Amino acid sequence: MASKEPNYWLMKSEPDAYSISDLRNEAETIWDGIRNYQARNFMRSMKIGDKAFFYHSNCKPPGIVGLMEVIETKITDPTQFEKSSKYFDPKSLKDKPRWDCAKLKYLGQFKEKLTLEEIRKEFNSDELVLVRSGNRLSIIPVEANVAYRLFNLLGDAN
DNA sequence: GCCAACGTTGGC
DNA sequence: GCCAACGTTGGC
């Protein structure tokens, strides 16, 4: 059976909390700590083999820094049950977890960060919701044609 | 530090 | 079900 084209995503992380360097060192990670239903639902719809742009948020300047691949899905987020975690959710039940996530593997880091400012020059908010002012969604679907244009802007990866 | 853009919560 | 109050995200 021929493999399907991957879907593309953009996933935000504050580099102070978890950066592309951290992922490069660990090779793979579960994307835990998502506590927004829309973002969770997007993560639920990820398929193994999908690609995701790693976006550094809340830093100067924010932008796309690397590329990842989805290697596992439907993982219960363990932090929801950890009392000491900032992501602890007292309303989540062990036999009915509220939060789950995907596992991502490091594919590469781009030689140059593609900044939000540069992305704004190329895309409007209908093409890529990331550039909508006030956008807070931490996991964003990316249409294939938008992904190809991003790759053109990004150039080579290491 | 400010604030726009939401999502969530809870009273009614 | 409405909506005011509140909290969070994240650019600037």
Q: What's the short story on this structure?
A:
With 158 residues, the chain is of the alpha+beta class.
Largest sheet report: 6 strands, mixed
CATH architecture: Roll
Shape type: globular
Measured between the Cα atoms of the first and last residue, the distance is 31 Å
State the secondary-structure class.
alpha+beta
Q: Helix and strand succession?
A: EHEHEEEHEH
Task: Give the CATH topology.
Answer: ph1033 like fold
Strand residues, percent: 25-35%
Count all strands and give the number: 6
Fourth-tier CATH superfamily name = ph1033 like domains
Rg of Cα set: 16 Å
Unreliable segments of 5+ consecutive residues: none
In which order are the strands of the major sheet placed?
2-5-4-3-1-6
- Mean pLDDT over all positions: 93
CATH class: Alpha Beta
Query: How many helical stretches?
Result: 4
Instruction: Please give the domain count.
Output: 1
Helix content: 10-25%
Core attributes:
ph1033 like fold; 158 residues; DNA-binding; 6 strands; alpha+beta; 6-stranded mixed sheet
